[in-house]
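Render Restriction endonuclease subunit R in 3D.
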Amino acid sequence: MYDINLPSFDCKLKQIDGKPYIFDQLRRKHIRLTPEEWVRQHVINLLVNHYRYPKTLIRCEGGLTLNKLQKRTDLVTFDRQGKPFLLVECKAPHIALTQSVFDQIGRYNLIHKAPFLVITNGNTHYCCAIDFDTDAVSYLDDFPAFPV
């Protein structure tokens, strides 16, 4: 569908009323296929099948309230204690990962307080660790492993 550099997988596509849909293994239903959804589904596949994140500990399109406004996080993973572990913001492949995208995930993380953040457009990925004691941000070479 869209050319990205995340591992491919056997995605289940179908047409509904002439529009493309992709099966979301987390929500267990077909979702309207947009360029951003294509990236999100590939990140879900990466987390579940390559990094062994349990599907039951990943929330897709979770709601949050920020400054009295309703927002949605693309993906939040939780550790086994139920605390946010990784926050992922997905963009369409043609969207540049600018400072405003970093600001967006940073604002969402004011609520979640996840120690790891990822922004991706399917071609470029930025992964970082947040040290809340020192407010330091360090960039990682790869997605963080799921905590055991």
